[in-house]
Design goal:
Helix content: 55-70%
Oligomer: single chain
Strand content: under 5%
Number of helices: 2
Distance between the termini: 67 Å
Length: 53
């Protein structure tokens, strides 16, 4: 394992980020979709837990 100075590692990571393609966008879209589904399910199902006393 080679030792890289922090500045060189940061520059290498920044240059590699531009070559990743649509990976980050797809990851964000998937996370938003999952959170939206969870919030929608919670909103629709929260009325079933109320007791009619």
């Amino acid at each position: 394992m080679e030792h890289h100075p922090p500045a060189a590692w940061l520059a290498e990571a920044a240059s590699a980020a531009g070559q990743q393609g649509p990976g980050n966008l797809l990851r964000v879209v998937l996370i938003v979709m999952v959170l939206g589904c969870v919030l929608t399910a919670w909103f629709l199902l929260r009325g079933y837990s109320r007791k009619d006393d």
